TrEMBL record, chains A, B:
Single biological process term from Gene Ontology: phospholipid biosynthetic process
Domain of life where this protein originates: Bacteria
Subunit structure: Homodimer. Probably interacts with PlsY.
The reaction(s) this protein catalyses: a fatty acyl-[ACP] + phosphate = an acyl phosphate + holo-[ACP]
Keyword Acyltransferase in annotation: yes
Keywords assigned by UniProt, alphabetized: Acyltransferase, Cytoplasm, Lipid biosynthesis, Lipid metabolism, Phospholipid biosynthesis, Phospholipid metabolism, Transferase
Main location: cytoplasm
Function: Catalyzes the reversible formation of acyl-phosphate (acyl-PO(4)) from acyl-[acyl-carrier-protein] (acyl-ACP). This enzyme utilizes acyl-ACP as fatty acyl donor, but not acyl-CoA.
This protein's name: Phosphate acyltransferase
GO cellular component entries: cytoplasm
Species assigned in the record: Mesoplasma lactucae ATCC 49193
Annotated metabolic or biological route of this protein: Lipid metabolism; phospholipid metabolism
EC number: 2.3.1.274
Enzyme class: transferase
């Protein structure tokens, strides 16, 4: 039985959609137990509303953990200490206390990261945790692990090496890639390119025999499936992720608006629907709305603040897959072998 | 009469396509004189081959400046001093000596930047020059000036302020935007977001009354037309630009490959061609292959190393527009008023 705590508060769209996503996911996952964490009244209302639609859901497969406080998407790091009964705090405590196998939330990123670090802490030997979304590629069946996508502002070369090691363990465990190819995100391919961080990280990654280093990779290749993992510091990774999201969304909107301008094109669009659907399925950020905070001593996932039914469903799947593939155990064992100098920074 | 020196060597596709692009552009610009700089034999061969196609071109409207050396796209900064008769060196010297109004090249970026800085130098008062491509947006008639897109690795907050000032002058002169809106590229909208650079730059930009400061802007908005200018350091700007290029190209390829998979969709595609063309025209990087190195005491443009007829045509247009709109004079006057502390760094 897999147990996941689901902080249903704090997202832009309220608890209602989170609960529905949870019930929908339970219907197809009989070995799963969900604990909805948040305001009892809101949760019960949503369950009453949505449960009748999901008839196969066993009523014993979910429960409610009542909390009285919420840290919303604008919440700060300090709220973690101020609001002891916040849903995100209680959810993280459940992971720390091993009452559940994993958790997810769509609340404030800042509060989530700070909370995970202070309440749970890192896997022994891990210097820093990193946000790691799974990004689609144009190559069928291939995905990209991008990290750090924004948990940190600055990182050292040693941290980038650890990120590469952790992502390699994850890519093998979850995506089934045998020797995941690790690329160092950079402004050029030559080893001499980039700032001091990139130059130092290049040397460390090249010398490390536990990973399969591709070399520098420009973010032009972000969707090409050339590598399985792209590693960079949190600031740069966040810029790249948000640029990619923005461009994919803008091109999609542009397509829609061009079609609307010329109604007769709608006839053609009808025939094109399978094409658009196939592309949409691949590149729609809603199917990739979740990111693991990798390096934390527990499976903890963040879903987009604006998550809807589809986004929450995708993040639930990622969380479930991480538990089923024993990502935490594999990371813990892996990082024992990988520790660079044995000293915490 | 506008005079532009065109370094036709050093691009991945050879002089042939550069020459054809030049002749094609001359056909529709009677007030233009082009000087093709490079290997005499190659240039003459290309002229003999392509001139018959462009019957309206006046034979007095172009000339050849012979050079014996080439710095190709892998050329280094040192080549600028080593190869005194390199086409890029001679072309930059023509700008320095005011023999032409502007120049363009598709050769090595590193050699071009170093050459422009050492051979021509900066506009008085300008601390650093910056690569500034013009990026399309989903809003009709609106474009984005992104800088620095990679001329520098690191920048100071003062440099980001100067970049904003120069880009504002350019956006008004070339794009006709009255009070261009300047956004500071960052990982979040709040003033407290980002690294020290972003925090300091935010304060400087906010306090400066010569520019119209929007605040922080996430690169999710890169194509949305929310701002006219996005300013950031060279490393971050290069990452964002290359991510955007990569995603736009991948989505385009995916569309093509999905259509190919199902031949019957081609019927629909025929009807969709105007839609695709409209989007292609907007987002095709070939139409935006050029970038000015703004801050240099002369109009100097770089076209993609892999430029084809379309890309070279677009960069020629940008170069021509910059001259016609007296960008250099306006920048020189503007930066006199803008100089922050009067001292070169």
């Amino acid at each position: 039985m897999i147990k996941i705590a689901f902080d249903v508060m704090g997202s832009d769209n309220g608890a209602d959609v989170a609960i529905e996503a949870g019930l929908k996911f339970l219907e197809t996952h009989q070995d799963l137990e969900l604990i909805f964490v948040g305001d009892e009244k809101e949760i019960n209302q949503a369950i009453d509303k949505h449960l009748p639609k999901y008839k196969k859901v066993n009523k014993d497969s979910f429960s409610i953990f009542k909390t009285t406080e919420v840290i919303d998407s604008h919440g700060s790091i300090l709220d973690i200490r101020r609001k002891k009964d916040a849903s995100i705090v209680r959810t993280l405590e459940m992971v720390r206390d091993k009452k559940v196998d994993a958790m997810l939330t769509a609340g404030s990123s800042a509060a989530f990261i700070a909370g995970a670090q202070t309440i749970i802490g890192n896997i022994p030997g891990v210097k820093r945790s990193a946000f790691m979304p799974t990004i689609p590629s144009t190559v069928d069946g291939k995905v990209l692990q991008l990290l750090d996508a924004g948990a940190n502002l600055d990182n050292t070369a040693e941290e980038l090496l650890q990120f590469s090691q952790m992502a390699s363990v994850y890519a093998t465990a979850v995506n089934g890639v045998e020797k995941p190819m690790v690329g160092l995100m950079n402004i050029g391919e030559e080893a001499s390119k980039g700032k001091e961080l990139q130059k130092s990280a290049y040397k460390l990654l090249e010398a490390d025999k536990t990973i399969n280093f591709y070399g520098n990779i420009e973010p032009r290749e972000i969707l090409n499936g050339v590598v399985d993992i792209m590693v960079t510091d949190g600031f740069t990774g966040n810029i790249a992720l948000k640029t990619a999201e923005g461009v994919a969304r803008s091109v999609g909107h542009e397509l829609k608006s061009q079609v609307k301008k010329h109604w007769w094109r709608k006839l053609a669009v009808l025939q094109m629907i399978p094409t658009f659907k196939a592309i949409g399925k691949k590149f729609n950020y809603k199917n990739h709305a979740g990111a693991i905070l990798i390096g934390i001593n527990g499976i903890v996932f963040k879903s987009h603040g604006s998550s809807d039914l589809q986004s929450f469903g995708a993040t639930l799947r990622m969380t479930y897959d991480a538990v089923q593939n024993q990502v935490l155990d594999k990371l813990t064992i892996g990082m024992k072998g990988y520790i660079i100098d044995g000293n915490e920074k």
